[in-house]
Amino acid sequence: MKITIARFLYSLLVVILFTQNCLAQYNQPIDSSKVIEQKADRNKLALVLGTSTLTLGASYIYVHNAWWKNNIQTFHFDTGADYKYAKNIDKCAHVMGGLITAELVHDALKWTGMSDNKSYLYSFILGTAMHSFIELKDGFAPTYGFSVGDLAAGTFGSAIPYLKYKFPKLKAINYKFSYYQHDRFFYDVKREGKADWIDDYMNHTYWLTLTVNDWLPKGSKAEKLWPDFLCIAGGFGVDNTLNNYYLGYNEEQFKGLGNYEYYLSLDIDWRKIIPQKTGGQIILARTLNYIKIPLPTLRLGPSADFDWLFL
After folding, report:
1. How many beta carbons lie within 10 A of that of residue 211, not counting itself?
2. Spatial separation of the C-alpha atoms in residues 18 and 13, rounded to whole Å
3. Where is 151: in which H helix or E strand?
4. Which of 44, 70, 181, 249 has the largest count of CB atoms under 10 Å?
5. What is the Cα–Cα distance from 139 to 150, expressed in whole angstroms?
6. pLDDT at 21
7. Which residues contact 267 (CB under 8 A, 6 or more apart)?
8. 3-state secondary structure at position 265
């Protein structure tokens, strides 16, 4: 994930806090029998759109002044270096960024009284628009360029909530992230500014988890035996042989090197533990479901290994 994306996501903290405060006002039990199609409250909608616009504008100004103010280039596409950078693990981070952005936008739009169908659809559109905005800005950057791959990853992430709404079986699948400093290669590089953990891809792992019971036949023996909250997780990362690129040794030669790592683990679906009856409970479970907790993990490649508590 490029630093611009990281700064943008940090700036979304304002939207996160705003959304949580909004939903806190609806922190009472949900009665599905009383849910009806509503029209969005214009004042609330204006507040949501205004807050989002101000946040995006502030992030744009910050990035412009901090990084590119005196070195803007003519618009250009990425020439291929982006697909070697971090061995494309950064694309997984763009998916996560798109997912979180779309879910936040959905929450805010739902708070205005907008229907689920519209709020999920518009969250996908607005999430994609936000990523397009960042990529367009990268197109004028001296060291980056407009990356179709980054935009595609962010767009896919933004589409996940809408796809889950349209195809409920997909709700059993969660996309998660874990980070732990297994080594310090990334932080030992001499650089301008501070090393940001969000760019330390050698210590990132991205996961797809499946809530098994949601896919087992209801009432079957297997469904009764398997714990409702227990998930199977598949992980993906890159090992520290990528460190030569980060350490600056002959950058072009080492860019794109590194071995992919594959993991098989267990995980927890917090929606099955935390009651999903209030807005606050829903937010808490979903937030926890972004993070893969340490549990017994088998590494399948590039070499086999086992860790009782892998993060």
Report:
1. 23
2. 8
3. helix 148-166
4. 44
5. 12
6. 41
7. 174, 176, 207, 209, 230, 231, 232, 233, 292, 293, 295
8. strand
Instruction: Name the burial class of residue 157, with classes exposed (0-12), middle (13-18) and buried (19+) by CB atoms within 10 angstroms of its CB.
Output: buried
Please enumerate in sequence order all residues whose Cβ is within 8 A of that of 216, keeping only pairs 6 or more positions apart, or say none: 222, 223, 226
Buried b (16+ CB within 10 A) or exposed e, 253-292: ebbbebeebebebebbbbbbebeeebbebbbbbbebbeeb
Domain-wise residue ranges, the chain? 1-166, 172-311
Assigned token pair, 61: 């100004």
Q: Between the CA of residue 170 and those of 127, 153, 212, 215, 236, what are the distances in Å?
A: 20, 18, 12, 10, 20
Helix (H, G, I), strand (E, B) or coil at 170: helix
What's the pLDDT tens digit per position in 44-91? Answer: 888 888 887 887 777 777 766 666 666 778 888 988 888 887 889 999
Q: pLDDT tens-digit profile of 156-208?
A: 999 999 999 999 999 999 999 999 998 888 888 777 667 788 889 999 999 99
CB 48 within 8 A of CB 109: yes
- Expressed in percent and rounded to 5, the helix, strand and coil fractions of the chain are 55, 15, 30
User: Over 70: is that where the pLDDT of 8 sits?
Assistant: no
Q: Would the pLDDT of 266 be above 60?
A: yes
